[in-house]
Amino acid sequence: MPIRLIVGLGNPGPEYEQTRHNAGFWLVDNLANSLPGCRLQRETRFNAFVAKTSVAGHEVFLLEPQTYMNRSGQSVGALARFYKINPDDVLVVHDELDLAPGAVKMKKGGSSGGHNGLKDITAALGTQDYWRLRLGIGHPRTLGSQQPVADFVLHRPRKEEQILIEEAIDKSLRILPLAVEGKFDIATMQLHTA
After folding, report:
1. Contact call for residues 51 and 60 (beta carbons, < 8 A)
2. Binding site: residue ranges?
3. What does the pLDDT look like over 147-168, one tens digit per residue?
4. Is 21 a catalytic residue?
5. Catalytic residue of the set 21, 115, 155, 192
6. Binding residues for tRNA
7. 83, 91, 146, 188: most buried, per Cβ within 10 A?
């Protein structure tokens, strides 16, 4: 099944724009900017920025919930129900503490790993069986910091980490057309070996 909805996770507002937790927004913004005529626009009925576009010849919705992270499921659930999009056809792009900056992984299903955005989306969709694109931001412990996780994700990455995260976003954008076409084996292989 092809992907019909790509969700970028983050927190709304300029104070969060450059924080690690907004890595999902960064990817969706980059994707929208790379597609001719694609513009994310506020849709109040979904409490989100939404764009309807075409990727690899398939119609795809891009979504950036404008709730806070822990309520992301409200927007995702509302749009998925309205357009009759199955959980199998959803790809959620989010920051991942368990991966180093620059690492990126794609998988279907699994637990939320403590990610509040994923927890709320799972509740809204009624299943864990949707696709995730996990952008590594590192963990404060593995990066030699005593910073609490909640504080860490709401701060900007260091310059060298930002460069690595941007490289992971670029790599992800290159395989997204394959994912949209439903060629997950090839997309995952290219993403994990590139």
Report:
1. no
2. 16, 68, 70, 116
3. 899 899 999 999 999 999 999 9
4. yes
5. 21
6. 16, 68, 70, 116
7. 91
